[in-house]
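Q: I'm building a small set of examples for a reading group on sequence design. Run inverse folding on the following structure and report the sequence directly after it, with nothing in between.
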């Protein structure tokens, strides 16, 4: 899957699990981001094609890497409230753009409050949620891989302890149906907020049916 598709899968999974009830939009934003993070090993392409072929879907996608990444990202986000600070910056940019283009009804108050008080119970929620959602990434890459002109690209889940590759291709990389299903699901969740959890579950059901029919 591509990073945007991973983000949409992570977002849908967070809504389906009801994480917005435990940590609000900040926890959903964190888990959406963390679902894309394992692709950091894509940076190996900076050292050439050989390095990319060797490192991608290995260093960032292994189980131990996902566990460490989820812990570090969730910890930094919770204690530094990175999502809250980014939310304030984003609102500031949008408010200036809206005023420039004449949307005078746009509120100047962001409603984004930086976390002032912290507790270990909420912190555990952040770490557990990130740990659960990050594994949507290697699972998705096991299922969506390969294409018409290139073979499936396996994931080394147990690196560095074992080089055993794993893959279970059910859809080709770049299949337009994947992005279409999750974008339509995102729109439906935004329009039907009261039933967003049901919609999120439905998105995965539709995705499963699509993969089966393909």
């Amino acid at each position: 899957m591509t990073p945007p598709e991973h983000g949409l899968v992570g977002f849908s999974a967070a809504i389906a699990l009801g994480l917005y009830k435990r940590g609000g939009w900040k926890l959903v934003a964190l888990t959406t981001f963390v679902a894309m993070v394992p692709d950091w090993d894509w940076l190996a392409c900076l050292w050439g094609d050989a390095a990319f072929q060797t490192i991608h879907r290995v260093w960032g996608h292994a189980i131990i890497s996902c566990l460490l990444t989820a812990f570090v990202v969730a910890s930094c986000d919770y204690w530094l409230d990175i999502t809250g600070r980014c939310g304030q910056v984003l609102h500031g940019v949008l408010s200036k753009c809206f005023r420039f283009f004449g949307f005078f009804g746009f509120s100047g108050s962001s409603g984004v409050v930086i976390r002032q008080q912290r507790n270990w119970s909420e912190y555990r929620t952040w770490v557990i949620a990130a740990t659960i959602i990050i594994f949507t990434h290697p699972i998705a890459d096991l299922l969506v891989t390969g294409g018409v002109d290139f073979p499936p690209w396996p994931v080394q889940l147990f690196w560095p302890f074992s080089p055993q590759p794993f893959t279970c291709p059910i859809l080709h990389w770049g299949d337009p149906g994947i992005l279409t299903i999750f974008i339509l699901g995102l729109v439906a969740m935004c329009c039907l907020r009261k039933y967003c959890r049901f919609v999120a579950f439905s998105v995965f059901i539709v995705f499963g049916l699509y993969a089966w029919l393909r």
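Residues 101-109 have pLDDT under 50 and may be disordered.
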